[in-house]
Amino acid sequence: PPVLTVRNLVAQYSSRYGTISAVKDVSFQIGRGETLGLVGESGCGKSTLSKTIVSLNRAVAGQVILDGTDIAPLTGRALRPHRANVQMVFQDPYASLNPRLRIGDALDEVLVVQNVRDRNERQRRVAAILDAVGLPATVARRYPHEFSGGQRQRIGIARALILRPKLLICDEPVSALDVSVRAQILNLFVDLKHEFGLSYLFISHDLSVINYIADRVMVMQKGEVVETLPRDDLFTNA
Ligand code: ADP
Ligand code: ADP
């Protein structure tokens, strides 16, 4: 079975000026071990779709079936165990890292929130995930501002992966990085995919990045999926 099945998903924003549908009736699947690229003009709904899948936004309608469970209607306690299964990596991990928390404590906190009670187990998992993303153990004692963009993104990836998700949603994860660092982080995503059996929904406006990382490519326009094509057709069909 697919790792993710999204069916007829609708997401909206409401304000006193009215309601806009940022995601309109979107359906797709991601297979195990698959990387689905997501492209489309700014404002077409890519981020809203991602946040709705990870339940940072509530779906107005539709299903988000993760590993057999529709998590779209779940909240709070009922959602928590499933939330671990899908995590996000953002463009700028610094924005979501607490500047006053040492990296080790920030990673520890993620496990505490997920009810991993055994302190030794948490320490072991923090050390293991830092190693997996190519950071030395000493990083745990340092603060976010002490790191370069590429290292921060490694920390962002560690934080997403420490809960052992099956699916990672990456929203422009290399767009803010220098070209040489970008290649290193892309290679890290590929390595981690094989090491942990991950699947990705990978958003990038850079088609060379999509061409490198994605197996299939989904194109959004004005809140809808208008096309899904194999990676090899990315440049031939344009
Ligand atoms: P993308 O990620 O493809 O750039 P978004 O999902 O950010 O697109 O935005 C989709 C639409 O939803 C746009 O019209 C955008 O202006 C609107 N939108 C995004 N976030 C909000 C928000 N917090 N409040 C109101 N409208 C929003
Ligand atoms: P808080 O620390 O108060 O939960 P955050 O803004 O850090 O506030 O997180 C808000 C929500 O976003 C939480 O439900 C959290 O689990 C989720 N979240 C934070 N970071 C990630 C991530 N890397 N991937 C997926 N979800 C995340």
Strand and helix layout:
Blueprint: E1 4-15, E2 18-30, E3 35-39, H1 46-53, E4 61-66, E5 69-70, H2 76-83, E6 86-89, H3 93-96, H4 103-113, H5 119-132, H6 149-161, E7 167-171, H7 179-196, E8 199-203, H8 207-213, E9 216-221, E10 224-230
Parallel strand pairs: 3-8, 3-9, 6-7, 7-8
Antiparallel strand pairs: 1-2, 1-4, 4-5, 9-10
This protein binds adenosine-5'-diphosphate (2 copies).
Task: Describe, in plain words, how this protein is organized in 3D.
It is found in: Cell inner membrane. Belongs to the ABC transporter superfamily. Residues 4-238 form the ABC transporter domain. This protein has helices spanning 46-53, 76-83, 93-96, 103-113, 119-132, 149-161, 179-196, 207-213; strands at 4-15, 18-30, 35-39, 61-66, 69-70, 86-89, 167-171, 199-203, 216-221, 224-230. The chain has 238 residues and is an alpha/beta fold. It has a 6-stranded mixed β-sheet with strand order 6-7-8-3-9-10, sandwiched between helices. A 4-stranded antiparallel β-sheet has the order 2-1-4-5. The longest helix has 18 residues, at 179-196. 37% of the residues are buried. Bound molecules: adenosine-5'-diphosphate (2 copies). One adenosine-5'-diphosphate (ADP) binds next to helix 1.
Structural class comes to alpha/beta
% residues in beta strands: 25-35%
Biggest sheet record: 6 strands, mixed
The DSSP helix count reads 8
The beta-strand count equals 10
Share of helical residues = 25-40%
- Radius of gyration, CA atoms, in whole angstroms: 18 Å
Order of strands across the main sheet: 6-7-8-3-9-10
Mean pLDDT: 95
Low-confidence stretches: none
Order of helices and strands: EEEHEEHEHHHHEHEHEE
Shape: globular
Bound small molecules, which ones?
Answer: adenosine-5'-diphosphate
